[in-house]
Each structure stands twice: as C-alpha cells, then as structure tokens.
C-alpha cells in the first residue's frame, strides 16, 4: 500500500480547517492509500514576522466584557476541536515547528500532497516553502489539492520562489477561479479548479460524524460569522434581525462571541464541538455566514444560505467562486447590498445538488488520476 503525506493547516481552532484536513485524509484513504497528515505547527516562528500581512482592521470589536463572559465557552470549543483532531486525524509521529525542521528530519512518503486552505496566501503564510513541499525529494510525486492563493496578485519578490517550487509538482489543483489565473500568469502552469475537500463527502458521510441529537427544538437561523478577513458588522447582525422578523425563527450564534447580548430569541453555542457544529448546520432552517466552510456545509446539507462578503470583486474570491460554479450568485451579499426579499430566501436545492454531485465526481476523478499518476 502506497503512503501519502498531507501538509495543510490541520489543527488551529477553526472548524473548517480541521474538517478540510480530515476530509482529504478520508478520501485518499478510501482510494486505497495509507495516509498521514504531517504534524506541522501553524502558526510558527516563520509566520511571526510576516511582512505581507495586511494591516487592515478586520476585527469585529466585541466588547471586552463580552469576550470575558464567553471565555469559558471558547476554551471548551478549543478543547473539543483538539479532541476531534486527536480522534479523527492520523498525524505523523514527528511534529515539526519550522520549514527548517522539515528539511532536517524529512518525513518520508511515496506521495506528498499540499492540501486545501489558504496555504499559498502570503498574507497568512508568509510564502512558507513548507506548504510548497520544499522538503519533499525531487523524484517524489507531488500534488496539490484545492490549494488557495487567496489573492489575484503575488508579491513580486515571492514570484521566483513560487515558480521554482510549484514547478516541481506533477499535478496542481486550486480552490478558486482566480487561483487558476495566478498559476497561468505567474507560474506559467495549467491547473484545475476543484471542490474543497469538505464537499467531496456527501451528507450521509458527514452525518456519521455529526451529533445525531438536535441542538435546539425550535426552528432557527444559524449565524456563523468569522472576523479574521473583514468586519461584517453591523450588517451581519442587522441581516439576522431582518430575517428573524420575517420568519419568526430563533437565532443561534456559533463559533465567535456576539457583539451585544440580551437579543431576544437568540441562543449561543460558542462552545460547540465540531460534531455539534455539523448538526447545527444540518438542522437549521437557514444559514447566514461569512465563512467559506460555513457556506460549503450549508450547501452540502441543502440549506437556504446567504454568504456575506466584503466585496464581490475582492482578491480573495473563493466564496464568490464557489457560488458562481454552483450557479448560486444570488445567495451572495456584500455588506453594501440591500437585504433580500422573501422570495430570495431559498433557491433550487435539487438543481444545486445535481451540479454539486457533478463537480464532486470531477474533483474525485482529478485526485484519483493524480494519485495514480495517470
């Protein structure tokens, strides 16, 4: 049985990151390989002094007293995410804390995969060569699956490094349409746009992991807002209040502390485990989110969803790209948009599911061909 080593961002306190790492591991294993996720710490000292990091204020500015109030719930969430990593991910025996560590004690596999997430985004990863498999032997088969640049333009001083290392790959796939253009314009290579690994698993497969028990008896709108790329407030909160008024549903907030308390008919599940998080999306009547993976899971479970972005034309267009590829552009809202009318609250779920299944099979076939080098 051939071995695969996957390098990705696999254990930060973010539901999407741990799920995408698990999903790629799961699919590769189903294709008949022995799989390990290389236990590479992120962030580490290499990422600490990132000159490409944006200085824009993306913080959502929750009041300090609210952060303190939810500190225990956040700690609980972090412990539960770490528990999920231990139980569901097959990690390499060695842990690595820098690109140099990987060079010095090179993990050995038949195939090396750069996994999904924004591994090639300089603003997040500082042009980390580890995520471009600088440590893998020249002759080893190197593949990327749904890697993301998160930008339309690479810094000029990083272009030679990216070109040198990415040219060593036999197969390159990316997660968004703009990434395909970057690969062609800068690296001079063709690549394929594939689905995020979480979308390679269907509803039934995720339901085997999700908590079976309903988290709330009443009908609710799930609000999953992240704040590390842009500040979606007060638009996101006002949108939720508008939806609640028109539907009469409760609101459930997950992942991050809210900006204000004492909002009627609102429930907080900040400490939710990954398994509970999946169930919260599965059982929601509607999902409002700024998150790529929040969007992906809502689509996968066939839920009415609105994805909030700062700007449809922004350089990090992975959300818009996904929605365009599924024909769901009307479900994308920028923070400058007026709120949707009731007739836009849903979409043709069956049509999107058919399209999703086509893209799922195409993405799986790409991965199968790459792994079998044919």
Give a short synopsis of this structure:
With 374 residues, this protein is α/β, with parallel strands linked by helices.
What does this structure look like?
With 374 residues, the protein is of the alpha/beta class. The protein folds into two domains: 3-68 and 88-201 and 357-371, 3-Layer(aba) Sandwich (Rossmann fold), CATH 3.40.50; 209-354, Glycogen Phosphorylase B (Rossmann fold), CATH 3.40.50.2000. It contains 14 helices and 13 strands. It has a seven-stranded parallel sheet. The longest helix has 23 residues, at 349-371. The chain is globular and about 60 Å long. The mean pLDDT is 94.
SSE order, as H and E? EHEHHHEHEHEHEHEHEHEEHEHEHEH
The CATH class of the largest domain is identified as Alpha Beta
Tell me which CATH architecture of the largest domain applies here. 3-Layer(aba) Sandwich
Number of domains: 2
Number of helices: 14
Reported for the largest beta sheet, the result is: 7 strands, parallel
General form: globular
Number of strands: 13
Strand percent estimate: 15-25%
Tell me the structural class. Answer: alpha/beta
Integer average pLDDT:
94
Fill in the CATH topology of the largest domain: Rossmann fold
- What is the end-to-end distance? 17 Å
Q: What's the helical proportion of residues?
A: 25-40%
Give me the side-by-side strand order of the main sheet: 3-2-1-4-5-6-7
CA radius of gyration: 20 Å
Low-confidence stretches: none
């Amino acid at each position: 049985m051939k071995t695969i080593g996957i390098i990705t961002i696999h254990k930060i306190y973010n539901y999407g990151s741990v799920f995408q790492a698990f999903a790629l591991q799961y699919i590769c294993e189903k294709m008949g390989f022995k799989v390990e996720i290389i236990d590479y710490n992120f962030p580490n000292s290499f990422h600490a002094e990132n000159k490409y990091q944006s200085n824009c204020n993306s913080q959502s500015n929750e009041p300090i007293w609210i952060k303190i109030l939810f500190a225990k719930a956040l700690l609980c969430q972090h412990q539960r995410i770490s528990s999920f990593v231990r139980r569901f991910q097959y990690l390499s025996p060695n842990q690595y804390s820098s690109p140099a560590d990987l060079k010095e004690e090179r993990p050995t596999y038949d195939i090396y995969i750069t996994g999904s997430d924004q591994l090639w985004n300089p603003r997040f990863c500082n042009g980390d060569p580890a995520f471009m498999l600088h440590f893998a032997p020249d002759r080893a088969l190197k593949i990327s699956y749904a890697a993301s640049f998160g930008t339309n333009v690479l810094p000029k001083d990083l272009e030679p490094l990216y070109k040198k290392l990415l040219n060593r790959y036999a197969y390159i796939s990316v997660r968004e349409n703009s990434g395909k253009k970057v690969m062609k314009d800068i690296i001079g290579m063709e690549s394929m746009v594939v689905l995020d690994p979480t979308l390679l698993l269907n509803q039934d497969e995720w339901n085997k992991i999700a908590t079976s028990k309903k988290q709330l008896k009443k009908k609710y709108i799930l609000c999953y807002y992240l704040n590390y790329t842009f500040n979606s407030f007060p638009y996101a909160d006002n949108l939720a209040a508008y939806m609640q008024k028109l539907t009469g549903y409760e609101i459930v907030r997950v992942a991050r502390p809210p900006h204000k308390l004492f909002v009627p008919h609102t429930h907080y599940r900040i400490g939710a485990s990954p398994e509970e998080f999946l169930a919260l999306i599965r059982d929601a009547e509607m999902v409002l989110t700024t998150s790529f993976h929040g969007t992906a899971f809502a689509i996968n479970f066939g839920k009415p969803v609105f994805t909030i972005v700062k700007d449809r034309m922004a350089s990090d267009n992975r959300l818009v790209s996904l929605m365009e590829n599924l024909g769901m552009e009307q479900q994308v809202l920028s923070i400058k948009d007026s709120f949707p009318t009731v007739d836009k609250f849903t979409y043709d779920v069956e049509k999107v599911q058919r399209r999703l299944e086509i893209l799922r099979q195409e993405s799986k076939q790409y991965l199968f061909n790459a792994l079998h080098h044919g």
